[in-house]
Amino acid sequence: MFSISQDFAPPFKLISPFFILGSLFYLVSIIYIFFISAENLFILDTKIIGFVHLFLLGFIMMTIFGAMAQLVPVVLEVGHFGVELFYAIWPLLGIGTIMMVFGFVGYPMLLPFGGVVVLISMMIFVMEIFLTIKKIKKFNLVMKSILVSNTFLFFGVIFGLVMSLGYSGLITIDINMLLRGHLFLVIIGYIVITVMGLSLVLLPMFGLSHGFSQKPLERAMLMVSVAVLLVVASSFYPLAILEYSGYLLAILGLSIYFYFINSIYKTRARKEIDIYAKSLMFSYFSLIASLILAIVYFFIGTEEILLCSGWMMFFGFFAFAVTGHVYKIIPFLVWFERFSPLVGKQRVPMLADMVPKQSSSAQLLFSAVGVVIIAIAILLQDEKLIKAGASFLLIGVLAFVRNVFHMINYK
Amino acid sequence: MYSKEELFLAISTVIDPEVGFNLVEMGLIYDASCDVDGNAYVKMTLSTKACPMHQLIQQWVKEAVLKMANIKGVEIDLVWEPEWNITMADEHVKQALNRG
Questions:
Q1: What's the domain count of chain B?
Q2: ipTM, 2 decimals?
């Protein structure tokens, strides 16, 4: 046995709760869909807002935070400032999310309390990342993206807290005015820019891609960042030109990002289409669908098109990007902890052996069909079709939860 | 003491658990030598700078060489120039990766 620095692979017991809780929140969000009726299909419906927070905070953010505990040292090339802080993040984020969801669906007084708990968890995360970034001597594009995305998250959470105080009636503010700023800061500013930055490292690493240009990604990130600033500015100075230039720049930036992803795909040496590659393919297909729907919304302006665009962005692009990476990150961490000390002493599994093939394929298939059916159901405002899609998604997410436990307990 | 080929043979027992090929056939080992006192030197790279297993892989290379008789120490020189690309891998690796 030899000692290995855990700078680049924090202990699995620190990260596993994020993936376990995240997958369970994903399951609960899908069950929640069965309780949504056609009359709830409006962006500002409290049931929808509760649902979106359950999914984004409970599943997407929870899993991203867990993944970042492992990925930050990999992409920033320095050890964490204080990786133990992650022990405090998941319980706070989990409790805060539950309180916020109950706050939205019927107990508004819980909202500011839940909001504060979520704020504390996210501030611990953001501060830990900032203090880790402080150790960097020379910045590259990925490092800049982590800095920018976490700065947006910092402000996005503050916007959210102010809004939760307004929802509960503790302060009087124009919630609608802050809504777009909050949405853009957290969703585009944090989640999308994080995904964009990480894809420069992770996609070439797993696909063994070389010889592609980073320029399109640089441009895409700049455009998306400026888009976030413009939309946030339009929250305070309600000028249509600011708001719409922001939307346009975001769509343009994401389209260039897709072009960049395609160039990585084309230059990859590893042609294997495993569950990771398939998940990302559906994820990027959903991104394109979401962007097309957003463009159509500008011309037609009906709310169901906007809702459908959001659905494809959240449950297509985000969810499949996250689940795809879970199939890479959990096996690595489990392998690192359980099998790496045995290398050279006995036969050890390959990372791909730890992913349940049939169950992960079932997860992908059922989830993808469910996402597409619900997208159509939203456009048609058809409640029965929503339940049908949710049934497919439920089978998919049950397989996902099973896969997470299978990989964690792999022996 | 040991030739480059002998050292490469020892290092070829180290397998990248992500792709399933050994480091030598992947083309990640650039050079290896050994002096008369048993001090070995390995010049190598990784497929990406962001490889989270970089510490482990270097450790495995060190251990694989140290298993050879009369080797007293191993110096690993991890370099990024020339940057690795798939053309450096053996033909069968390229074909296997290309097949998927």
A1: 1
A2: 0.84
